[in-house]
Amino acid sequence: MKDANMTETLTFTDPRLAELDGFHVQLNVSNERADIILARPPYNVISMGARDQLRLVFEALDADDRVRIIVISGEGEHFSSGGNIKGFLEASPEHVSHLAWNIAAPSRCTKPVIAANRGYTFGVGFELSLACDFRIVSETCRYALPEQKLGQIPGSGGSARLQKIVGVTRTKDIVMRSKRIPGQQALDWGIATECVPDGDLEQAVTDLVTELREFSPMAQRTAKKLLNDTDDALLSTAIEMEGLNYSRLRQSEDFREGVEAFHAKRKPAFTGR
Ligand SMILES: CC(C)(COP(=O)([O-])OP(=O)(O)OC[C@H]1O[C@@H](n2cnc3c(N)ncnc32)[C@H](O)[C@@H]1OP(=O)(O)O)[C@@H](O)C(=O)NCCC(=O)NCCSC(=O)/C=C/C[N+](C)(C)C
């Protein structure tokens, strides 16, 4: 990557990528926004190697100061029909042991991550989206964890994350019946952040990127980490951690800038410090 405003496809130089089975993840970076595209149409099936690629891409983007917001989408009509079923029997124990860690990469990333979901968003495609901070879906989106049809269960955090969002009854309905959830229902159940007509998906994502870029990167990072860390915590612990993080954030330049801009009736100019 050269400068923040250019669009280019990342060339992976990490030697660990040399052994991967195919190159199916594209990356474009422009204007502080990074687009990760699952590029294996029509169904953007995610190979074991693509999972490794995804993790490495998220780690690289997280470390790059020129990137503020990350968007993940699928090429064409579908986000992804999930993991490559045809390769499951050949998967190495090493790959299997990394499944959940790789797919949790958006959640570990300190920057805001948006999933843009349309069409089939199945299996590991859904799990990957659940690890993101925002899910903007189109009306064509169909979420599913269809592993039971394969004599399997989700293995990359899908049922666990879903249960947190929709509770055990709905999760059992989705997992144990391999049920498909349409975009509008995903919104109604709190799985999706927003549901829009298919032709409006890109604009809805761009609008959210524009909105998020207005905020202090430091305050965003703190909010994301705090909410992730306290997801499992007792209420009393979560409240205490919120207070500690607030106190720490008070020391930042962005905190002062936010308050001074409010007084001056001007737009804040956050620097991330
Ligand atoms: C509804 C689907 C996606 C499309 O149906 P269709 O009738 O339009 O097309 P068709 O079934 O003929 O598919 C065309 C070709 O694409 C291949 N395909 C599609 N999805 C996959 C996939 N996920 N893996 C491998 N190959 C796939 C399909 O086999 C056809 O190939 P050929 O032309 O026959 O060579 C329908 O295809 C469907 O329901 N697919 C399965 C979706 C699914 O079960 N996804 C979950 C996979 S499991 C997973 O993601 C995570 C597992 C976690 N862990 C590993 C821990 C167990």
TrEMBL record:
Transmembrane segments: none annotated. It comes from the Bacteria. It holds the Pfam family ECH_1. One of its GO terms (molecular function) is lyase activity. The gene is caiD_1. It comes from Sulfitobacter pontiacus. The keyword Iron-sulfur does not apply. GO terms for biological process: fatty acid beta-oxidation. The keyword Repressor does not apply. InterPro entries: ClpP/crotonase-like_dom_sf (IPR029045), Enoyl-CoA_hydra/iso (IPR001753). Keywords: Lyase. Its EC number is 4.2.1.149. This is Carnitinyl-CoA dehydratase.
